[in-house]
Specification:
single chain, 180 residues, mainly alpha, 6 helices, 3 strands, 44% helix, 7% strand
């Protein structure tokens, strides 16, 4: 499936939904754009420049999809053009604003997938996400995974175990952020 075919189908879907309902949020659910996406579509190799990557980020969130949707966190890989998580979020927020869209950091994780990590490490990662949200005026974010009970998932958070303090930290930030 080519990028063009996929984004064309996404656009058609979004236009159809917007004909029925033009008020609700409409998300692609995309992960963060690969840091070589531009080169991959041209069947060449190499890391994308900042401009090439932001072009692809916008292309992957076409037309009526608003906001720009990304899945990333401080424990996720970074592109060569970002010197940290905040800089990546700054780049994504700037690209979103250039298209008159907002940015949604969807389902950020608090530790590396399939990896147990300490509460201190989780809190540090969440602090970095919350600082980037505030610094870049990101209006919407969600954490992955909240209270997954059917199967043990080391990235899961719950109010019923020792990860409750991480959820409380997010909740406290949300209360302060929502009254600004």
């Amino acid at each position: 499936l080519t990028t063009e075919a996929f984004t064309s189908a996404l656009s058609d879907f979004a236009k159809t939904v917007r004909e029925i309902d033009d008020h609700r949020i409409l998300l692609t659910g995309n992960a963060i754009t690969r840091f070589s996406a531009y080169h991959m579509q041209t069947r060449s190799r190499g890391a994308d420049s900042l401009q090439q990557w932001t072009t692809m980020l916008l292309r992957h969130n076409p037309g009526p999809f608003n906001p720009i949707c990304i899945h990333t966190s401080p424990v996720s890989p970074l592109p060569h053009f970002a010197n940290g998580f905040n800089e990546l979020i700054h780049t994504c927020a700037g690209a979103a604003r250039s298209a008159s869209k907002s940015l949604y950091i969807e389902e950020f994780i608090t530790c590396k997938p399939k990896t147990e990590c300490s509460i201190a490490a989780r809190r540090e990662n969440v602090s970095e996400v919350l600082a980037a949200i505030q610094a870049n005026n990101v209006p919407l974010a969600s954490v992955w995974v909240y209270e997954r009970k059917m199967l043990h998932d080391p990235t899961s958070l719950s109010f019923d175990d020792d990860t409750a303090s991480v959820l409380q930290m997010i909740s406290d930030f949300d209360r302060k952020w929502s009254v600004r």
